[in-house]
UniProtKB/TrEMBL annotation:
Gene that this sequence comes from: cpaB
Keyword field contains Transmembrane helix: yes
All copies of domain SAF, residue ranges: 56-120
InterPro entries in the record: Pilus_assmbl_Flp-typ_CpaB (IPR017592), RcpC_dom (IPR031571), SAF (IPR013974)
Superkingdom of the source species: Bacteria
UniProt keywords, alphabetically: Membrane, Transmembrane, Transmembrane helix
Name of this protein: Flp pilus assembly protein CpaB
Spans through the membrane: 15-36
Keyword Ribonucleoprotein: no
SMART domains named among the record's database cross-references: SAF (SM00858)
Species, as recorded: Collimonas fungivorans
């Protein structure tokens, strides 16, 4: 039997280089894949070794703890663990005194680092328990300006002002006055108890996480977005805030908690734009205003009597003052 009749050697010779190229490519892919896996393992091991070098001391129980157990010092021990793997609310030996005598609310196995969230004092205390006797918590809306672009945090101190439209102040004989915008202090040095749903407790926990270098890994929030802030004020002041909200806009001004100064007095928009307006209104007769060097000034007023000579004399004094040569 002639095999050459079934096998085309010429075609095999032509396809042989292509087959060799495919085999070489497959072998190269195999080698590259094997190298990448080996290199990845080496990098992971290196990172793990680096993380294990940075260690921190935590508090762990010597025995298994169950919900309802009261923590005692005899149940505790300390151990060092890689800092990279710790929760942001892990309890250090320096903090453990605050948790002695508190109830455990979840099972904790022996040797497991204790966390703040394992205790009743952290998760089950309602917000109302943080309000002092005789005080009331009030939630007020804020905008981008009042929230200081999210920089306002629970625990900060603020002054509250109210802003509203009301008639300008003027002499009774002048009749009804046009509306003016007034800004007046409402309350001073008020502590912010919460921004949105973030309370002082969460802010303190986030600060501890940042100090421990765990904030970013634990998903610590940056500048939060919120539309309300909650303050705690005496009951009488709470009534003022509630009433003012019905007819005016409340503006928050951030201040230092150590600053004991009083807020500014009531101020009208017209007083800022034209400080001399009220003085001109109180002049007994018609006045002449003039402009020198691009600045508006109030001139002397002309006497309202019928004596034309007095009016002329007053006008001359005005011209002399405007020219810089008072007579």
């Amino acid at each position: 039997m002639n095999i050459k009749r079934f096998i085309n050697l010429q075609k095999i010779k032509k396809a042989l280089p292509l087959v060799i190229i495919v085999l070489i490519a497959a072998f190269a892919v195999f080698l590259a894949n094997n190298y990448l896996k080996t290199r990845s393992s080496e990098i992971e091991k290196s990172l793990s070794d680096e993380a294990s070098k940075v260690r921190t001391t935590v508090t762990v129980p010597r025995i298994d703890l169950n919900p309802g157990d009261v923590l005692t010092m005899e149940q505790l021990a300390s151990r060092t663990v890689p800092k990279e793997y710790m929760n942001f609310d892990v309890i250090s030996p320096e903090q453990i005194d605050a948790y002695i005598g508190k109830k455990i609310i979840r099972p904790v196995r022996k040797g497991t680092p204790l966390l703040e969230s394992y205790f009743l004092m952290y998760e089950s205390v309602p917000f109302s328990k943080s309000i002092d006797a005789g005080s009331r918590a009030i939630t007020i809306p804020v905008d981008e300006i009042n929230s200081f672009s999210g920089l306002l945090r629970a625990g900060d101190h603020i002054d509250l002002f109210y802003m509203m439209k009301r008639p300008q102040e003027g002499p009774p004989s002048a009749g009804p006055q046009p509306e003016d915008t007034v800004l007046a202090p409402l309350l001073k040095n008020i502590e912010v108890r919460a921004t949105g749903q973030t309370t002082v407790r969460e802010v303190l926990a986030a600060d501890r996480a940042r100090e421990a270098g765990l904030g970013e890994r634990q998903g610590q929030a940056g500048r939060a977005t919120y539309s309300t802030v909650t303050i705690s004020v005496p009951a009488a002041d709470a009534q003022k805030v509630i009433l003012v909200q019905t007819g005016a806009r409340i503006v928050a001004v951030l201040r230092s908690p150590d600053d004991q100064g009083d807020a500014e007095k009531r101020l009208f928009l017209s007083d800022v734009i034209d400080p001399d307006a009220k003085r001109r209104l109180q002049m007994p007769g018609p006045q002449v205003d003039y402009i020198i060097g691009g600045r508006f000034r109030t001139g002397e007023y002309a006497d309202s009597s019928e004596d034309q000579a007095k009016k002329l004399e007053a006008f001359k004094r005005l011209l002399g003052s405007a020219a810089g040569n008072p007579q």
